[in-house]
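Milestone M4 deliverable, item 7.
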Amino acid sequence: MMMKIITVMMIMMIIIIIIIIIIITIMMMMMIIIITMIVLICTQINTFH
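Output delivered:
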């Protein structure tokens, strides 16, 4: 019985870690996209002036 609880806890921990990693990677991607957009807009403005 105890072993079963431990294995379930381990699986839950692994799932939580995977979800956290996915969220972090999505956040990083969003940051990169936003930064590239800002850079593109800045270069556009600079070329106009």
